[in-house]
Amino acid sequence: MSKAPLIRWGARSAALRGPVVAGLDAGEHRNAIGVHAGAFSVYQALAVARGELSPQHRPDLTGTAPPAGFGPFPQWTDPSRIVTLDPWGHRVGQMFASERAAGMDIRPSIAITPGRLQMPEIDAALASGRLKADDKVLGRSGDIRVTKIAIEPVWWLPGVAGRLGLSEADLRQALFTVTDGMYPALLSMPARKVFLPPIGGTSVYLFGDPARLERPGGFTCRVHDECSGSDVFGSDLCTCRPYLAYGVEEALRMAQDGGLGAVVYNRKEGRALGEVVKLLVYNARGQAASGDTPGDYFTRTEAVAGVCDMRFQELSVDVLHWLGVTRIDRWVSMSNLKSAALTEAGIEIVEQLEIPPHLVPARADVEISAKCAAGYFARARAS
Question: 0.85 exceeded by the pTM?
Answer without folding.
Answer: yes
